[in-house]
């Protein structure tokens, strides 16, 4: 478990909005973030780990910007803060996806109980009650950068919503139990042996009858 901290005492009352840029440094590795979102308030606990069978994998973060620097745009906002809860991993077309806008003030628990303004690629797309934007069946056209805002003019950072197509399922018909030519050949052989068997019985009966009369 890892909790972001700040060595600068002037930042302790600020709320940090942190874009998770951690990477799993292994081929075909996937980073799992818990809770499943890419923005967090300062001092909030998060868990970063690679998926199953991750022996020998390591999680690293981009340290080009240090958490001890003065709070600026991209790290946090004084007194109030807004983050957008959005899936960190790609979602599949047709899934129901919910984006939640979360607002927090100093000394007050985070809440989504407000009418939130949502933006896609910095363009306003509407106000949504209860701080939620819900896609009943998400599509590729919904992919993009999303952000949200609180009525107090506080806005979140933008986060990317990735949408992937559903994998194509190719149904291969099972091979036939027996080819037509083999089936016809088997029927012909069966009938031939049946006729031979009947003829043999007939000949035997005539031979037995003639022997009995001799």
From TrEMBL:
<dbReference type="InterPro" id="IPR050488">
    <property type="entry name" value="Ig_Fc_receptor"/>
</dbReference>
<dbReference type="GO" id="GO:0009897">
    <property type="term" value="C:external side of plasma membrane"/>
</dbReference>
<dbReference type="GO" id="GO:0007166">
    <property type="term" value="P:cell surface receptor signaling pathway"/>
</dbReference>
<protein>
    <submittedName>
        <fullName>Uncharacterized protein isoform X3</fullName>
    </submittedName>
</protein>
<dbReference type="GO" id="GO:0004888">
    <property type="term" value="F:transmembrane signaling receptor activity"/>
</dbReference>
<feature type="domain" description="Ig-like">
    <location>
        <begin position="78"/>
        <end position="148"/>
    </location>
</feature>
<keyword id="KW-0472">Membrane</keyword>
<dbReference type="InterPro" id="IPR007110">
    <property type="entry name" value="Ig-like_dom"/>
</dbReference>
<feature type="transmembrane region" description="Helical">
    <location>
        <begin position="180"/>
        <end position="204"/>
    </location>
</feature>
<dbReference type="GO" id="GO:0006955">
    <property type="term" value="P:immune response"/>
</dbReference>
<keyword id="KW-1133">Transmembrane helix</keyword>
<keyword id="KW-1015">Disulfide bond</keyword>
<keyword id="KW-0732">Signal</keyword>
<keyword id="KW-0812">Transmembrane</keyword>
<dbReference type="InterPro" id="IPR036179">
    <property type="entry name" value="Ig-like_dom_sf"/>
</dbReference>
<dbReference type="InterPro" id="IPR013783">
    <property type="entry name" value="Ig-like_fold"/>
</dbReference>
